[in-house]
């Protein structure tokens, strides 16, 4: 088995083996682009390293040195050589891009001897590179805090009276190298390694280890990246953007990653290396300034960026270095972007004829798109708000919250449920968790490609960077326009404009742009799975229609009974001692319920409307406070103690598994009859008055045995047909069930014989399959998460492994009886992209989700990636 590949041996399709960075470096090599050559140690080698208890096996070491020899031959340089020495970078790169999460070491191969050899040619570059190597190596390999080195640098800068490390002269750099080596030796307990091969192996190991550093673990979790993938390591010949005149290094996107506008968008620094641009420690120049100073290199880079975009059929995020006027490409990948940009780019690239509609839909990252529906500031509130500062609009969306100055405090606020805005000089990868839990991020330093900006965009989180008017102080205060702000003070930020406001500003839901609406209609053309909505009111239904829902997959009828005037009739019904009493109480509910359905049918017109019959245990409707009980007693002319007795009698040890769902209607069929009458009469009324051929779908919950269903369905159909006949009209109604018990899954073939449709109630199915209650699981699921037992909340994203098998079984059993039976899902999972993926693959007819998730779901069902 091959573990190490020359760039010239790979290509973009080998991403799993070479990681994203390695595969794309290989691809650019194949395309004949100017890429410094090198080789990639595969992800399999990383896994092998962990399997061997963190040792790189002898045979892989041998392969690495063989490939190093080939690189020496290709470059005509010698690693550790006494003339024309080869320096390399050691760069991490997993299958999925994880910007800034893992480690890179530059200028490897420099030693006290080699630096002197290199110095004969260019002393300043030699020592500048050496000091960078020592610092990075200390950080990455030995985990020595960067700050010890930064302190030395500060000291030397002060001593020489120079502003930036880029301007240090040779003597200063030599002095810095001397100091760095002392610090290194002090903290590492050994001198800086003088054998380049030792440097190389140690750096490779460190990159392997960085796969499991806390921020990488956190990032993986956030983005669903499996631990088992491992990272690859790229060893690449160094090129030098720090060789003085005619040298630069930078990053650029082929389109604006914040707005999507078609333009080369990027930042660079003259006479610099690597991390200087993204670390936020130097303020970079915008890419158009490169056009002015190095027009040829700029033009070449521009041309390559266009070629790459066409080649990868997506917006590219590229890294480059210019050494003495010569351009080198160091990386390309599909660029991360804001939701707005994603929509604009996908739309434009279809219009420009670069990609197909299907490719445009596939290009959209649904996790990020959710940001589109994120709130915007309320226009009115905004017009009277106090704008106190302006920075760069790095990631759009409006956010208000309490100021916090560090990631740990952000977590504390998050745990208290208080929204906060993380305000920092600049962010670093350690801050990632705090950034995730903050409502927004504001930094006073950094450009549009700084860490804060890139990470916030990846999270779809509101972010402003480079806001120099906000002076963040060591003592956890910020001074803005002369006023001091402390932790807990409220501010608001608008990541779309870069404006910072004092106080809290109200927000309103985001609107869909015309481009997004067009993409959604393309998605509808391509999708086979329909998107329904869960809506209990005409207002929700109308909202969902606006968002493009094609039906209602779930009306929870009990929600209709909680309003003040209704709950009383409901309680009367529950307190009834006899069927006659109960029917009388239900008569009061009938017109109310009928009107609800009239309103909803009028909104939904000829689209299917799935109505679930009363589901929750009855105690949920009873009052809990003494005052309410007393009120009820007087209304019902009953004794308080009698009511208390009834409430006690309704008490169940496991209400989730108690007298609920179809069991209620089986004990009290008159409830189901009232609901049937309300639905059918409402449907007929709307049909008659408005002429719509309404499509009611009656759904019986929590069926575990087909006999339960048959018992109710027979009575429902009998009554429905009777009413329809009386009206001398026709009506297309269906009676189906919700499958939400494991037993129902196993018996789905029998059930299918009786039902007109099936909808999976995945909330209950998850609860009943795992055997843990969704109301109580939160606490121990947190332990499970920490211990790595269950790391994904199965109530938010379907447990495809376990619960998914039950669904699959039921699906196939049902289809084996009725090949065309309508099958959908109406749990929370119907709006979760990963779960939708699962339902789509199985062949569901629809997924149903809450109105605001409908647009994203429409994209999900159309994706074929
Ligand atoms: P990250 O994944 O954090 O972006 P990279 O491996 O891309 O880390 O390295 C960071 C930066 O280091 C690059 O953007 C580039 O500027 C610089 N770099 C990496 N390899 C080389 C090289 N061979 N020559 C010159 N600069 C390099
Ligand atoms: Mg990079
Ligand atoms: Mg249920």
From TrEMBL:
Domain PEP-utilising enzyme mobile positions:
419-498
Q: Name one Pfam family in it.
A: PPDK_N
Q: Which cofactor does it need?
A: Mg(2+)
Residues that span the membrane, as ranges: none
Binding residues annotated for substrate, in chain numbering: 556, 612, 740, 761-764
Has the keyword Amino-acid biosynthesis been applied to this entry? no
UniProt GO molecular function: ATP binding; kinase activity; metal ion binding; pyruvate, phosphate dikinase activity
Keyword match GTP-binding: no
Class of the enzyme per the UniProt entry, highest EC level? transferase
Protein name listed in UniProt: Pyruvate, phosphate dikinase
Which organism encodes this protein? Erysipelothrix inopinata
């Amino acid at each position: 088995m091959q573990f190490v590949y020359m760039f010239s041996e790979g290509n973009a399709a080998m991403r799993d083996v070479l990681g994203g960075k390695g595969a794309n470096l290989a691809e650019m090599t194949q395309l004949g682009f100017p890429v410094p050559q090198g080789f990639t140690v595969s992800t399999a080698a990383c896994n092998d390293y962990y399997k061997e208890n963190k040792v790189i096996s002898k045979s892989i070491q041998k392969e690495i040195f063989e490939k190093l020899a080939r690189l020496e031959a290709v470059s005509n340089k010698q690693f550790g050589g006494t003339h024309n020495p080869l320096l390399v970078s050691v760069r991490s790169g997993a299958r999925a891009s994880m910007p800034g999460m893992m480690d890179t070491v530059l200028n490897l191969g420099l030693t006290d001897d080699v630096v002197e050899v290199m110095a004969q040619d260019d002393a300043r570059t030699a020592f500048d590179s050496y000091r960078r190597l020592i610092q990075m190596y200390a950080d990455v390999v030995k985990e020595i805090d960067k700050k010890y080195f930064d302190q030395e640098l500060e000291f030397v800068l002060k001593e020489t009276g120079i502003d930036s490390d880029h301007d240090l002269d040779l003597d200063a750099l030599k002095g810095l190298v001397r100091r760095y080596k002392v610090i290194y030796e002090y903290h590492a307990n050994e001198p800086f390694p003088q054998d380049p091969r030792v440097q190389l192996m140690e750096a490779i190991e460190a990159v392997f280890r960085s796969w499991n550093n806390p921020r990488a673990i956190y990032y993986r979790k956030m983005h669903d990246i499996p631990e088992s993938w491992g990272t690859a390591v790229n060893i690449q010949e160094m090129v030098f953007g720090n060789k003085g005149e005619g040298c630069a290094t930078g990053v650029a996107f082929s389109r604006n990653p914040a707005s999507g506008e078609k333009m080369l968008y990027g930042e660079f620094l003259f006479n610099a290396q690597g991390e200087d641009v993204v670390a936020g420690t130097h303020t970079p120049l915008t890419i158009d300034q490169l056009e002015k100073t190095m027009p040829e290199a700029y033009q070449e880079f521009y041309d390559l960026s266009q070629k790459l975009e066409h080649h990868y059929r997506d917006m590219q995020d590229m890294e480059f270095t210019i050494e003495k006027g010569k351009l080198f490409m160091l990386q390309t990948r599909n660029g991360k972007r804001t939701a707005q940009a994603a929509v604009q780019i996908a739309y434009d690239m279809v219009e420009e004829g670069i990609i197909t509609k299907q490719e445009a839909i596939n290009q959209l990252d649904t996790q990020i798109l959710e940001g589109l529906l994120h709130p915007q500031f309320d226009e009115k509130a905004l017009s009277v708000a106090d704008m106190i500062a302006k920075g760069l609009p790095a990631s759009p969306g409006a956010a208000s919250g309490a100021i916090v100055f560090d990631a740990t405090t952000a977590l504390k606020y998050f745990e208290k449920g208080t929204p906060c805005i993380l305000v920092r000089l600049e962010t670093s990868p350690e801050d990632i968790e705090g950034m995730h839990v903050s409502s927004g991020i504001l930094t006073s330093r950094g450009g549009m490609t700084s860490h804060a900006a890139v990470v916030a965009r990846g999270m779809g989180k509101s972010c402003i960077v480079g806001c120099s008017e906000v002076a963040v102080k060591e003592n956890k205060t910020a001074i803005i326009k002369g006023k001091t702000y402390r932790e807990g003070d409220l501010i608001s930020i608008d990541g779309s404009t870069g404006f910072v406001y004092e106080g809290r500003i109200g927000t309103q839901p985001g609107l869909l742009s015309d481009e997004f609406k067009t993409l959604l209609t393309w998605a509808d053309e391509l999708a086979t799975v329909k998107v329904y909505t869960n809506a209990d009111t005409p207002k929700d239904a109308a909202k969902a229609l606006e968002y493009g829902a094609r039906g209602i997959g779930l009306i929870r009828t009990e929600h209709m009974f909680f309003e003040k005037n209704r709950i009383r009739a409901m309680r009367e019904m529950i307190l009834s001692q006899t069927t006659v009493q109960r029917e009388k109480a239900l008569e009061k509910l009938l017109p109310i319920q009928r009107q609800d359905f009239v309103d909803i049918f009028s909104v939904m017109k000829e689209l299917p409307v799935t109505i679930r019959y009363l589901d929750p245990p009855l105690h949920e409707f009873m009052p809990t406070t003494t005052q309410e009980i007393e009120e009820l007693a007087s209304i019902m002319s009953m004794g308080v103690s009698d009511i208390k007795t009834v409430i006690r009698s309704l008490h169940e040890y496991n209400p989730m598994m108690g007298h609920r769902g179809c069991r209620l209607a089986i004990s009290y069929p008159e409830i189901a009859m009232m609901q049937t009458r309300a639905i059918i009469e409402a449907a007929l009324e709307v049909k008659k008055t408005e002429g719509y051929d309404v499509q009611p779908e009656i759904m019986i919950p929590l069926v575990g045995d087909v006999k339960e269903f048959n018992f109710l369905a027979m009575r429902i159909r009998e009554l429905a047909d009777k009413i329809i006949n009386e009206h001398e009209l026709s009506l297309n109604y269906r009676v189906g069930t919700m499958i939400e018990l494991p037993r129902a899954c196993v018996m789905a073939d029998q059930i299918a014989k009786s039902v007109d449709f099936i909808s999976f109630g995945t909330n209950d199915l998850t609860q009943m399959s795992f055997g843990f209650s969704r109301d109580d699981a939160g606490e121990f699921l947190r332990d499970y998460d920490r211990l790595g037992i269950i790391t994904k909340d199965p109530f938010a994203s379907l447990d495809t492994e376990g619960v998914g098998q039950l669904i699959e079984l039921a699906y196939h059993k049902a289809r084996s009886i009725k090949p065309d039976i309508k099958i959908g899902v109406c749990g929370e999972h119907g709006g979760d992209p990963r779960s939708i993926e699962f339902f789509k693959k199985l062949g569901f007819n629809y997924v149903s989700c809450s109105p605001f998730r409908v647009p994203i779901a429409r994209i999900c069902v159309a994706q074929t990636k």
